[in-house]
Structure to design on (909 residues):
């Protein structure tokens, strides 16, 4: 074949085609009913389009007909892995509106339980992250440790997942007499078990290969997409609400804000593991110093917020949750809006995973720690 | 092994290559040690065999399983039929149908509970009804085995037939 | 009929003689085939069932669980219940799929290990095919299975299946190389591909001990490469349930799905059997040189137990990998093969040649 013929032959080779693939709404690694429309070239991702709405329950609209006490339990169903923190956000916002000073005891209890929630959320995330990357055993280990926290919750709050422990003005019941002991036992136990997580995944050469330099998100992108929480902090965006705008008892505890600058999956992974250590630190500082007092400030049976707009932000396990309430001095709010961390974090997925492979998309998604009902309220 | 600009093979590359392999294998063995520990310690198994352990399985006393109306041994309860719980419930799981009762002595008629309907299928176990009850007539029970074959079985009447309000409860 | 648990040669011969007295010669051969076929079918079914059960239990214990406990004593009948369920399930064929290839693929996948298992020497004399290229035959036929996987992915009319199949194709083609090279390292010492000769050559010690360091390296490469070749975790990209739902067998249901499932476990057995035969002396008991007293004690344990014991150990090791490690990505998998395993393997082969030349091996 002459050179000329070769060149013409090359040109007649049909072009490679891009194709679409639907990842979800039922897919093992979207952890819920999220549908991602992927445009692929072979295994390389060209574009990701998230399609939402499969689990829309119009929580914000439902809030407009409910009283302020009733709104709280709806937020359990948004980001169910940090339900206590969601509850707390609504209660803090209502208390802000009422200009109600809650007892010190409540603040401390709320903080401890928030941190326990964060721990349990991160434990579950760790297990699921391993499972997404093919190490199924981690899933069971994560759940094993989480089980102890859900037991603590069950004993004190009365439920394992959708606890609804907060009410405007305080918490529903006082802590259970066993609460302190159980929590301390758990911390001692988990301080021994957390290094195991590192042995199993963090140091593992396959795991680091799968996560290092994958799903890169720059600091500027993180800020412009509003990626918060451990995912944002792994890109160098110091956005910890607990540090920047302290609420409850966070102003009196010592803890580090975990910031990494790499911005890849491994940094997001490390940020969460480090956060677990910090959470344990916070709990240890508070658990022995719960002030005596009431577990709830007195509120009226029917709460009416004065006319106006109220905003409160908290740090959930996934990032910044904002609660925005517009009140027209009735017994239910005029409008409620939640700024959910998952939604903003998901919006950066396309930027992060473009040009990577399908397997990397799975890793990127699990380090974003998406909870679909949080994205789609 | 990589070749540097002046054409000399750089054996640092080879050294890295070997240390890569060494560290990789070491990290894998560390992981295997963890799982190896658990397979050799069957005592640490955490599985609970649920239906078999029913006798020993005790829920915490605050566990919210279902709403019940407390009756004492004389088949008396404390519910006045005030409907506070119905109002507090975010999703309409409670329906209070009240009746009237005329006191035979004074001839005054008072509002009493006729039927306390509880839709277990709609309840989100939020505990708001319990908090709102002024007489502490209802509480959360710890029963959690709620599955039935017929949905209508989940709609319950909580006041037992023939039950009366406790004397002195207003 | 003289049945001897230590040497099956006489037993097999006596069956042969008996068949020849009962049937005319041609029919005797056919009857022999039928008997062997039935034996293998039963053996493979039992093997598949028990391996699935064992895998479940092993994985459960790694994960601090109990595993199946309800059906039968300690859940022993669980896999039987599963098979019954799979048999009665509707064999769905998805719309737009190539029906002929779709059905054919399941059979190709299961035929490959069936053929390969014929050449496995179970004990002295208990050996169906013993020709001079036994090892070559096993590696050759067991790679037919990938055709089935490719066909399954192609004919399913499902993009996930297709990606899975293509991954699997790339994977098996590359890892075949390492498997064969690592086996070749030992072949240098045995000088024969005949499995019975390989086993006999380990009468005074297994190759993994006799063959010096290169043999140990070869064994580890063999284990890694053959885990990859059988599509098991951490190399299960072809299925990768978190990425591709179930990869090439996404669209299969019922008994055809069971074929894929069974094939995976039989492949696991064959890998372990080849590993045991080449590196650990097959059915040969543990012998140390001319240490007669020790050798005699070891001989007391029947060879078939030795063989299955070694297989169990190797299978356990492979399961241990699967239940500990995360999955690699497809390009990392190929990097591992072409940049690490293959060069190491080639150097190791050279080393082994050196060892064999200078007689450093025992
Ligand atoms: S627990 Fe909540 S949802 Fe259930 S009946 Fe009481 S108020 Fe209603
Ligand atoms: S249960 Fe309590 S709140 Fe409900 S109607 Fe009876 S007395 Fe009122």
């Amino acid at each position: 074949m002459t050179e000329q013929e070769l060149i013409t032959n090359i040109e007649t080779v049909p072009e490679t085609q891009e194709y679409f693939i639907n990842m979800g709404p039922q897919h093992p690694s979207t952890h819920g009913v999220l549908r991602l429309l992927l445009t692929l070239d072979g295994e390389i991702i060209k574009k990701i389009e998230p399609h939402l709405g499969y689990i829309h329950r119009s929580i914000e609209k439902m809030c407009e007909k409910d009283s302020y006490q009733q709104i709280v339990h709806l937020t359990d169903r948004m980001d169910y892995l940090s339900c206590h923190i969601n509850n707390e956000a609504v209660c803090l916002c209502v208390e802000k509106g009422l200009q109600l000073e809650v007892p010190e005891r409540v603040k401390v209890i709320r903080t401890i339980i928030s941190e326990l929630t964060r721990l349990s959320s991160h434990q579950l995330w760790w297990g699921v992250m391993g499972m997404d990357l093919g190490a199924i055993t981690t899933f069971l280990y994560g759940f094993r440790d989480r089980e102890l926290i859900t037991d603590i919750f069950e004993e004190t709050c009365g439920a394992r997942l959708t606890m609804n422990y907060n009410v405007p003005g305080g918490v529903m019941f006082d802590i259970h007499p066993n609460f302190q002991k159980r929590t301390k036992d758990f911390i001692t136990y988990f301080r021994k078990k957390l290094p195991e997580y590192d042995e199993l995944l963090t140091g593992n050469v396959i795991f680091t290969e799968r996560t290092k330099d994958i799903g890169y998100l720059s600091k500027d992108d993180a800020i412009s997409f509003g990626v918060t929480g451990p995912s944002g902090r792994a890109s160098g965006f110091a956005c910890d609400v607990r540090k920047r705008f302290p609420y409850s008892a966070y102003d009196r505890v010592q803890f580090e804000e975990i910031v990494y600058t790499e911005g890849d999956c491994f940094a997001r992974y490390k940020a969460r593991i480090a956060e677990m250590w910090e959470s344990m630190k916070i709990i240890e500082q508070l658990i022995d110093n719960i002030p005596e007092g009431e577990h709830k400030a007195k509120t009226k049976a029917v709460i009416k917020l004065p006319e106006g707009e109220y905003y409160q932000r908290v740090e959930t396990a996934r990032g910044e949750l904002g609660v925005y309430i517009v009140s027209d001095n009735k017994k239910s709010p005029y409008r409620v809006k939640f700024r959910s961390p998952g939604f903003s974090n998901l919006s950066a997925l396309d930027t992060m995973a473009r040009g990577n492979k399908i397997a990397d998309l799975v890793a990127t998604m699990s380090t974003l720690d998406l909870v679909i009902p949080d994205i789609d309220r | 092994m990589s070749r540097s600009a002046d054409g000399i093979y750089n054996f640092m590359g080879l050294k890295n290559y070997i240390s890569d392999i060494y560290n990789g294998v070491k990290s894998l063995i560390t992981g295997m040690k963890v799982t190896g520990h658990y397979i050799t310690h069957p005592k640490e198994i955490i599985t609970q065999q649920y239906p078999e352990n029913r006798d020993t399985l005790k829920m915490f006393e605050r566990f919210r399983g279902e709403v019940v109306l407390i009756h004492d041994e004389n088949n008396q309860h404390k519910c006045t039929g005030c409907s506070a719980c119905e109002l507090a419930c975010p999703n309409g799981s409670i329906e209070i149908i009240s009746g009237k009762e005329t006191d035979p002595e004074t001839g005054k008629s008072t509002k009493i509970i006729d039927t306390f309907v509880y839709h277990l299928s709609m309840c989100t176990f939020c505990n708001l009804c319990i908090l709102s009850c002024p007489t502490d007539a209802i509480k959360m029970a710890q029963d959690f085995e709620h599955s039935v074959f017929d949905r209508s079985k989940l709609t319950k009447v909580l006041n037992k037939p023939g039950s009366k309000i406790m004397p002195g409860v207003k | 009929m003289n049945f001897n648990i230590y040497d099956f040669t006489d037993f097999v011969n006596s069956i042969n003689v008996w068949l020849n007295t009962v049937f005319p010669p041609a029919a005797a051969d056919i009857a022999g085939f039928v008997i062997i076929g039935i034996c293998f079918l039963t053996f493979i079914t039992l093997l598949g069932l028990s391996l699935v059960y064992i895998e479940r239990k092993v994985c459960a214990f790694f994960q601090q669980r109990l595993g199946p406990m309800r059906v039968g004593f300690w859940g022993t009948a669980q896999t039987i219940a599963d098979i019954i369920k799979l048999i009665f399930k509707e064999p769905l064929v998805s719309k737009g799929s190539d029906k002929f290839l779709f059905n054919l693929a399941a059979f190709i996948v299961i035929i490959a290990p069936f053929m390969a298992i014929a050449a496995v020497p179970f004990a002295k004399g208990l050996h169906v095919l013993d020709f001079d290229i036994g090892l070559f035959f096993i590696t050759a036929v067991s790679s037919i299975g990938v055709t089935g996987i490719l066909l399954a992915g192609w004919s399913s009319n499902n993009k996930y299946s297709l990606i899975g199949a293509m991954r699997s194709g790339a994977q098996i083609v590359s890892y075949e190389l390492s498997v064969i090279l690592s086996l070749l390292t030992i072949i240098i010492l045995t000088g024969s591909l005949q499995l019975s000769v390989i086993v006999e050559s380990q009468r005074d010690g297994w190759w993994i001990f006799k063959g010096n360091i290169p043999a140990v390296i070869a064994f580890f490469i063999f284990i890694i490469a053959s885990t990859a070749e059988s599509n098991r975790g951490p190399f299960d990209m072809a299925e990768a349930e978190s990425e591709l739902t179930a990869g090439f067998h996404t669209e299969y249901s019922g008994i055809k799905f069971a074929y894929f499932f069974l094939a995976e476990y039989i492949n696991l057995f064959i890998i372990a059997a080849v590993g045991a035969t080449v590196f650990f002396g097959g059915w040969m008991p543990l012998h140390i040189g001319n240490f007669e007293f020790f050798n005699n004690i070891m001989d007391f344990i029947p060879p078939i137990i030795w063989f299955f014991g070694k297989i169990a150990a190797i299978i356990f090791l492979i399961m241990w990998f699967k239940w500990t490690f995360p999955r690699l990505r497809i390009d990392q998998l190929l990097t591992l093969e072409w940049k690490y395993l293959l060069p190491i393997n080639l150097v190791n082969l050279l080393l082994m040649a050196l060892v064999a030349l200078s007689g450093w091996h025992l």
Observations:
- The first strand of chain A starts at residue 19 and ends at 23.
- Chain A has 16 helices and eight strands.
- The domain at 59-214+279-376 of chain A is CATH 1.10.645.10 (Cytochrome-c3 Hydrogenase; chain B).
- Strands of chain A lie at 19-23, 35-41, 44-51, 166-167, 170-171, 308-315, 320-327, 335-339.
